Structures are given as C-alpha cells and as structure tokens.
Amino acid sequence: MFKRVLIANRGEVAVRVIRACQELDIETVAVFSEGDRDALHSRLADQAVCIGPAPARDSYLNVANIISAAFITGAQAIHPGYGFLAENPNFAEICERVNIKFIGPTSQVIEKMGNKAEARKLMLESEVPVVPGTEGIISTEKDAINFAHNIGYPVIIKAAAGGGGRGMRIVQNDTELSQGLNTARSESEAAFGNGDVYVEKYIEEPRHVEVQILADEHGHVVHLGERDCSLQTSRHQKMLEESPCAALNPSLRNRVGEAAIRAAKAVGYTNAGTVEFLLGSRNEFFFMEMNTRIQVEHPVSEMVSGIDLVKEQIRVAAGERLGYRQRDVRLSGHAIECRITAEDPKKRFAPSVGKITKYHAPGGIGVRVDSHIFSGYVMPPYYDSLLAKVICHGHNRAEAIQRMQRSLHEMVIEGVKTTLSFHRSILSNAFFKKGEVYTNFIKRRMGEG
Ligand code: ADP
What we know:
Elements: E1 4-7, H1 11-23, E2 27-32, H2 40-44, E3 47-50, H3 63-73, E4 77-79, H4 89-97, E5 101-102, H5 107-114, H6 116-125, H7 141-151, E6 155-159, E7 168-171, H8 174-192, E8 197-201, E9 207-215, E10 221-232, E11 238-243, H9 250-266, E12 271-279, E13 285-291, H10 298-305, H11 309-317, E14 334-341, E15 343-344, E16 350-351, E17 358-360, E18 367-371, E19 386-394, H12 397-410, E20 412-414, H13 420-427, H14 430-434, H15 441-446
Parallel strand pairs: 1-2, 1-4, 2-3, 4-5
Antiparallel strand pairs: 6-7, 6-8, 9-10, 9-12, 10-11, 11-14, 12-13, 14-19, 15-16, 17-20, 18-19
This protein binds adenosine-5'-diphosphate (ADP).
Adenosine-5'-diphosphate binds at residues 131, 156, 162-166, 168, 200-203, 206, 208, 232, 236, 276, 278, 288-289, 439.
C-alpha cells in the first residue's frame, strides 16, 4: 500500500479522497492555489503545498507544479479526483514515466475513451449497443445529411473530444444541420483544441442511466449497479442522481450491467469507471460514453452497495485484488443525491459567489453530506459552483425521497444564491415522485428559465 498520496484537486472531492486515505492510514498531501488558502482540503491533509495562482490553468491544471509537489513531498501516488487533470491522458502518461502511480486507468485507456467517436467504434466491435450514428467523424456535410435522411430527424451533433455537456447541438432539418456542423466544429476547436464532430440519432425523452464499474489489475471486473442521472438542466448539468433506476427490472439491469462490463473489458479497463447509456422509452439502451474517473455522483452507488469506491480505487492502484465477485455484490435500498450548487435557478442557474455567512448541514439516520464549505467560507470565483452533495439512503425510493425532503428542510446555506429551494421543489413534484423522469424533465415539468 502507498505510504503517501497527493490529491491533485480541490473542493469536496479533495476532502472525499483525504477521508479515504486517512481510513487507510495513508499520509495525504493537498495542493492548493493562492485562491484556496483557507480551503478545507488543505487544512485536513497532513501537508499542503501551494501550486500557483488562483486561475486553474496556473494551479490545478499546472502539471509541472503538481509533479514537483509530489516529488518534494515524496508522494508515491496521485489521486486526480474528477475534472481538472482527471481525464487528461498526457498527465497520466507523465505520472507513468516518472514512476508516480496515477490512481485511475492507464493513459492509453484514457486516451481511447476520451475520443467519443473512437469509443463508439470500440463498443460496436465488442457488441455493446451504441446510439445509431455516423461511422466515425464527419468529413463532409453530405455524409451528415445522408445519415440524417436515413435515420430521420432530429439528430444530435457531438464533438468527438466533448465533455461536460459542451459541444452538442440538436438539429431538426438540413439547414440546421449544415449550420450546426460549422458552429459545432468551431466551438469544439475553441473549447477542446479538436474540431472533429460526429452525428447521432437524437433519442426522444430518454433516461440517462450509467453503470459504476470497478476493475482490478488482475482481470476482475464487477459493476455496482446503475445510477439514473436524468434530472439535468437544459445545459445537461446533472442536478439529482439516484440508484437504482426506477425503470429497470432485474433482467434489464443485468443486461445493462453486463454490457458495461463488456465495455470495460474491451479496453482493458482498470480502476473505477462509469459507462453511460441512454435508455429509450421501449427499454432499448445505447452506449453514450465512458468516464474514466470517479464521478460526482459516486456516493449513491456507495450507499446502496456498502462499498467505498475511493478506497477501492486506491487499493486497486496499489495492485490489490478486488476481494469479491459479481455474485457477492449486494445492492440494497435506494439512494438519492442532490447537488446543491451556488447558482440562481431564477437566472438560468447563473453562478453566484461570495461569503457563506451561515451553514448548517442536515444529519440523522441515512443522511450523508459531502462538502468543503463552512460558515465564513468565501467561495473563490474561479472554480465550479458545487457547495455540497446531500445523499440520502432509505429502504425504498419513497423513504429515500422523504428523508431527502426532511434533510433539505434542515439544511441552511446563507450568503449566496443556491439551488436548495429548487431541489426541494423537484422532490415534491408529483411526476418525480412517481419515478417518471427523463432528460428534459426540468425543462418540461419544472419550467426552467
Ligand atoms: P458530455 O460528455 O458532454 O456530458 P454526453 O455524451 O454524456 O456528453 O451527453 C450528455 C447528455 O446529453 C446526456 O445525459 C443526454 O441528456 C444528452 N444526450 C446525449 N446524446 C444524446 C442523444 N443521442 N439523444 C438524446 N440525448 C442525448
């Protein structure tokens, strides 16, 4: 096992990883930017190293400074969290070259899965169902139009290198398609340094269902069931996630789980990862992409499986074997996570920054809060707007919903605009309570904007 691990991240996920390390008796090294001097993660870690000015490109994305911090402190491994460098194959490769263990899959796997068009091809070869789409990237407008005519509008243009809901465009006809191709290409070039795009059938009112997998370096792969992440803003930002998905029966759950394991095996995947699918109204499911890192919403899988995913990531990276097989994984009850962010739901979720003047976290049976904020904390304007994740577990979905409603009423965050009241109204929505959710739910049922 590692003696010392550096956490190349900030915010709640850095705190989450530090907690796992402490329970494994591993010393922790936090890194922080000049904008994060008072941050909780640097206070909780055994050591903290400043890695540069507040803007992320100068600090949390500064590979040279992070690697130097690891050398200076004698860290044997780096946990990247999510975001920042977590899915950057160059960073993982540098770690491999300088003999610091990157806690995640190999740089080759990250590279393969990072290109969505490539990943689709690989999945097709492994008989994992994928959304009907163009074969690889689009070279001419004519190819895109032919595809759209064959499959029928609407179609969705996607950036091969896209992520975080960016670089996507839904189009209804030939004119929109040809205009969309140009804008998507230039947007993607600007955002990701890669203008490659491809086109997929747009699945109407789907659910976003993703499978958590865990793979050791000895060929064992298990899945920990699925998460339903259909509740998203119109910019595809997830707001609430739950496990299990109310629409899956045991046999469909097995099929989706097995497809995810096939996907992981096809690329020689190691460590924790997520295979994302779209689930259509007739229970047909299609591979969308694979995320080669721990996800924001991982706690819901932890709550139903009783498995600490971050500890497992660290153990697997240290070469340990998974101590169980698929049949040993027991999923019980229902878990829901609300991502409480500093955003103003009345202003299309525009970010809000400032000082948290008052903070009170909910508690009690079945309630978990993963957060880095405290009363008096000043939110730096440079990073994402996540304040706290509230995760509630119950015997069934109804109990998890009641527990979440109770928790959100207990929770107090003052000083910045938050999504707390918006989350409260999702929880009391009759359609949500019935489990009738899909990716346009917030727009259709909550009158977003
Ligand atoms: P990103 O990597 O940017 O998050 P994804 O490929 O994961 O992009 O897609 C994000 C969201 O966009 C999905 O959860 C879903 O709501 C929507 N989406 C993506 N592809 C399709 C599609 N073919 N049909 C309908 N909705 C889609």
